[in-house]
Write a structure and sequence with these properties.
It is a single chain. By secondary structure, the chain is α/β, with parallel strands linked by helices. Helices cover 35% and strands 24% of the residues. The protein contains 17 helices and 24 strands. α5 runs parallel beside α7, α10 packs across α12 and α14 packs across α15. The protein folds into three domains: 247 residues, Alpha-Beta Barrel (TIM Barrel); 98 residues, M1 Pyruvate Kinase, Domain 3 (Beta Barrel), CATH 2.40.33; 150 residues, Pyruvate kinase, C-terminal domain (Pyruvate Kinase, Chain: A, domain 1), CATH 3.40.1380.
Length: 528
Amino acid sequence: MQASHLLLEEPIRLASILESSTPNAFSSMTKIIGTLGPSSRDVETIEKLLNAGMSVARFDFSWGDSDFHQETLDNLKKAVRNTRKLCAVMFDTVGPELQIINKGEAPINLVVDEFVVLTPDATQQASSTTLPVNYPELASVVKPKDTIFVGQYLFTGSESTSVWLEVMEVQGPNVKCLVKNSATLTGTLFTAHAAGVPVGLPTLSDFDKEVISKWGVKNSIDFISLSYTRHAEDVRQARLHLSKLGDLYQTQIFAKIENIEGLKHFDEILKEADGIILSRGNLGIDLPPEKVFLFQKAALHKCNMAGKPAIVTRVVDSMTDTPRPTRAEATDVANAVLDGADGILLGAETLRGLYPVETITIVQKICAEAEKVFNQAVFFKKTVKAVGEPMAHLESIASSAVRAGTKVRASVIVVFTSSGRAARLIAKYKPSMPVLVVVIPKLTTNHLRWSFTGAFQARQCLAVRGLFPMLADPRHPAESSTSTNESILKVALDHGKAAGIIKAHDRIVVCQKVGDSSVVKIIELDAY
């Protein structure tokens, strides 16, 4: 178990808890990913979500068709223009998800101690005695006493609207189960999860490939959330597919860890993926409840030391139906921040919940409060020790920039980058001040046409804790003359002033390349 990253005043000043929270110019350092859907797809609502702190919009094709999601994304683009706030796009794959289709759409009442049969026969109507599942091999991979969870897609796991089933016997292609709790399943789509049971379906399905090849290419998606990642090879195959799709070679892959297989191969997956999503909903089914927090802390620590963003899911489920989180949920969000999470992913709460804007607002406030007591000094020392010596050149520069920022109490770190790597290395050390990332576009060619990179790299910073990107004029290279650097730095500082994170007499740490040298310098804002 890792040491606490909680910093408290000595003696603890409990009266400070009663003081009003002071809002930050850039909301929280921790990023918030919102899933867009029926409750959050019109322009006005999306504008409110962006203003509340959403930095990445997630699109889940487990339900809804391409036209529905395209309309939502078009509305997102309008909201971005209206609010002048950057927002990245994340496509969440369906993957090897077990689904039950309720064609009749009538509520299904399941009663404790009664039996229900899971069948691969898609012609069967879903009812209280029969549930058609989309996996023909289910009967060959489960055995008596296995547990299967069934619930409305993206729901909270409430015991009145989701059900636990115990496998009693396998009857040919069918699986007879005992209902362990009474529940009413509503809607057209339910998901099933067999605890600890390997499912022999491809991680990147043919459906996923088609969506990426058409909708993904058309919309230049920034991230793929690779559902049910079980092996490093899953990530490699997804990257190979992206490499054949024009500009999508720049798309980052976040491996979604949501079952025992992914947990067992976590280290190898982390090496291949660009980031990790801890899908605690399904993990909470595969793992005993008392073990979930251990995996969260261990996985977040590994991600932190590797310098790769880590996203935590399922934190304020109750806000799907209520305007306030429970005490446990509020504490859970704060603990995720103190454990080093880069972002919080919201699912049903924003997709179809009653309070999508309120959800992002309160999660942002909790994250901001937790960040105030995050012990960055302890985290910095631990990270430097884990990296060891000799440090790589860029790692040394990044850690020096963070150390300098802490020592001089800089209000912001400004970093110039083309690939985003320098910015991510700075973020690895979790500086207590925001990092203004100036992304310099780079001219590239595939021998058929010339194009600028930079837009992907800027938006991808929106999933990393503490990074706030801006895209520079492509006429200014990342390593150029002193006069050009001074000119673009002034633009960056003016941006910081307008955003409210830089004011008179502040000290600024700047990390940039000058010729063949990487430079960290400290400037007084009075000079500008």
